[in-house]
Amino acid sequence: MGHYNMIYNQLLQLIPRHQFETLAERYGANKYVKYFTCWQQFMTMLYGQLRGKDSLRDIETSLRSQSSRWYHIGLKDVKLTFDRHRQINYRRPA
What we know:
The chain is an all-alpha fold. It is 65% helix and 0% strand. The protein has one domain. It is built from 6 helices and no strands. The radius of gyration is 13 Å and the shape is globular.
C-alpha cells in the first residue's frame, strides 16, 4: 500500500485542488451535494485507476478494507456504497 500511496500523493500534487474546486463551483458540480464532493469522487476514481480496479464494487471493497486510513487521502467521513457511487457517477456531468 505504501508504494501506491506515494504515487497517489504525487499525482494529487500535480492537480491544484483550488483550481479543481473553482471549476466545480463554476459549473455547479457540487450543487445539492451533501457528503460526496467532486474532489472526493475524483480521488476515489483515481485510486481505482492506480490500483487497477475493474468495477465500482471493487473500488468500494478496497476502500472499505482501508477505511481507517481514509483521512490520509482526504476521504474522511465518506459513507461510500456501490449504489451511491453509481448514482453519483450517473448524475454528475462528465
